[in-house]
């Protein structure tokens, strides 16, 4: 039976799906990748990858979700009698569960850094002290655990309200707030002396850097930024109204993803260049390099409060999209109430978060694949489960799903983009599987 619960409006749909897509990767990973892989040359490749790879995958996940009204596992179970495809859906649920476990630890850091910013904790600190404080924070174990627990509770509080009264209502507030904050930070950054250097870093085309490595980086960023291959978009697809254009939603979200990523770079890197600090990637940029920048600039604590609140918003809108697929799975497959489902899932996720947090403590024995559990889960999901899940989803839509069903969902029963369906299905059948296969072989070191 089709899921009768839907998003309340098109804006609500965009806010919720956009909240899933726009996360921490937009704030720190994209600007760094663009700057170090050819600037605007990389951005052109990224846009092409989004249009030809990520967006077709997103549309395919929407098709699976909306046509069934089910969670990832239940959707494949309804669309195919072969058990293999139900296992693909189950793999998506497991993947998002594992990601949420370690993601909540990083998101918890943002909560702690908001507190530090409010108390002007970065003021007057040099690089060595900031680094030492961050390491001490990680090694305490209990501090990241407490922050992750608070974050998990906040996420549960949003999702427990349901789709329209919980997730959609909160995202309709948080996503505009995110855009306002990032615009304010951008406007402030234009006054810094390093603004021109930052623009050159991000936008100046350098085609000499645009080799295979840059192309692989663009594919990876476009793919992982849009929360693909783990059931999130299948679940959100089940809530999209039948009259809403799936391709239109996907294209709009892709544009928003790129816009926020660029604005984040425009807001962050002027400060980095102004104070002569080498731009870095990952948590080091957010939690060590930028606090050093804030300690040097006038009214840096105010800038820090706004920035880490921005990080928090990006994190919680993404975490909501991780909890909901697991929640819908337990509601539909085990007949749990939404409240019971969220309480049970949140307790288990918190246990996983505790293990991830304590695995980062010096000399911890909590390991996976020879790494601490946090890094091990990151590698497992990033390099294996997500890309393989996306590849199997796209193969299913291109080669095994009922073509009339796919066509009806893509075209809204012939009402829109009827001519675009042939292009979409050929891209899904041939181009995307080939590129994803090569991408996976590269990730695991076989190419």
Brief summary of the model shown:
This protein has 447 residues and is mainly α. It is 78% helix and 1% strand.
| Order of SSEs | HHHHHHHHHHHHHHHEEHHH
Low-confidence stretches: none
Number of helices: 18
Quick check: average pLDDT?
91
CATH superfamily: Hydantoin permease
The domain tally reads 1
Strand content: under 5%
- Basic shape: globular
Task: Tell how many strands the DSSP assignment holds.
Answer: 2
CATH architecture: Orthogonal Bundle
Q: Identify the strand order in the major beta sheet.
A: 1-2
Helical/strand content category:
mainly alpha
Question: Percent of residues in helical segments?
Answer: over 70%
Q: What distinguishing features does this structure have?
A:
mainly alpha, Hydantoin permease, 18 helices, 2 strands
What report would you give on this structure?
It contains 18 helices and two strands. The protein has helices at 10-21, 24-36, 40-68, 72-79, 83-118, 127-140, 142-159, 163-189, 195-203, 212-225, 232-237, 246-274, 283-296, 300-334, 338-359, 373-400, 403-411, 420-443; strands spanning 367-368, 371-372. A two-stranded antiparallel sheet has the order 1-2. Strand 1 and strand 2 form a beta hairpin. Helix 1 crosses helix 14 (300-334), helix 3 (40-68) packs antiparallel against helix 12 (246-274) and helix 7 packs across helix 14.
Sequence-ordered SSE layout with sheet pairings:
Blueprint: H1 10-21, H2 24-36, H3 40-68, H4 72-79, H5 83-118, H6 127-140, H7 142-159, H8 163-189, H9 195-203, H10 212-225, H11 232-237, H12 246-274, H13 283-296, H14 300-334, H15 338-359, E1 367-368, E2 371-372, H16 373-400, H17 403-411, H18 420-443
Helix pairs in contact: 1-8, 1-12, 1-14, 2-9, 2-10, 2-12, 3-4, 3-10, 3-12, 3-16, 3-17, 3-18, 4-5, 5-7, 5-14, 5-15, 5-16, 6-13, 7-14, 7-15, 8-12, 8-14, 9-12, 13-14, 14-15, 16-18
């Amino acid at each position: 039976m089709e899921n009768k619960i839907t998003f309340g409006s098109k804006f609500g749909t965009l806010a919720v799906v956009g909240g899933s897509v726009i996360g921490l990767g937009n704030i720190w990973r994209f600007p760094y990748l663009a700057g170090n892989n050819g600037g605007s040359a990389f951005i052109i490749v990224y846009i092409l990858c989004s249009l030809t790879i990520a967006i077709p995958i997103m549309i395919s996940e929407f098709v699976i979700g909306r046509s069934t009204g089910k969670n990832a596992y239940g959707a494949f179970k309804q669309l195919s009698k072969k058990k293999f495809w139900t296992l693909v859906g189950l793999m998506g649920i497991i993947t998002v569960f594992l990601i949420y476990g370690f993601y909540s630890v990083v998101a918890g850091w943002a909560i702690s850094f908001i507190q530090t910013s409010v108390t002007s904790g970065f003021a007057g600190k040099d690089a060595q002290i900031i680094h030492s404080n961050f390491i001490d924070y990680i090694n305490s174990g209990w501090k990241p655990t407490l922050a992750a627990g608070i974050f998990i509770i906040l996420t549960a509080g949003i999702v427990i309200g349901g789709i329209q009264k919980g997730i959609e209502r909160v995202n309709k507030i948080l996503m505009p707030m995110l855009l306002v904050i990032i615009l304010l930070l951008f406007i402030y950054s234009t006054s810094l002396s390093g603004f021109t250097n930052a623009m050159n870093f991000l936008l100046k085309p350098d085609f000499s850097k645009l080799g295979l490595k840059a192309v692989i980086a663009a594919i990876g960023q476009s793919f992982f930024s849009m929360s693909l291959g783990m059931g999130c978009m299948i679940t959100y697809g089940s809530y999209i109204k039948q009259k809403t254009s799936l391709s239109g939603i996907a294209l709009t979200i892709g544009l928003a993803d790129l816009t926020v990523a660029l604005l984040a770079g425009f807001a962050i890197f002027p400060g980095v260049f102004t104070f002569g600090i080498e731009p870095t990637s990952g948590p080091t940029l957010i939690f060590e390099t930028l606090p050093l920048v804030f300690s040097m600039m006038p009214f840096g604590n105010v800038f820090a409060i706004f920035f880490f609140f921005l990080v928090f918003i990006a994190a919680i809108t993404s975490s909501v999209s991780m909890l909901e697929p697991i929640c819908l799975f337990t509601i539909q497959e085990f007949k749990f109430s939404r409240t019971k489902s969220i309480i049970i899932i949140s307790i288990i996720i918190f246990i996983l978060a505790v293990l991830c947090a304590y695995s980062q403590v010096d000399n911890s024995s909590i390991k996976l694949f020879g790494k601490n559990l946090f890094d091990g889960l990151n590698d497992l999901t990033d390099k294996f489960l997500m890309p393989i899940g996306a590849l199997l989803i796209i193969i299913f839509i291109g080669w095994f799903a009922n073509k009339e069903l796919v066509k009806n969902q893509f075209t809204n029963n012939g009402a829109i983009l009827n001519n675009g369906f042939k292009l979409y299905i050929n891209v899904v059948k041939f181009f995307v599987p080939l590129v994803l296969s090569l991408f996976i072989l590269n990730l695991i070191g076989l190419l």
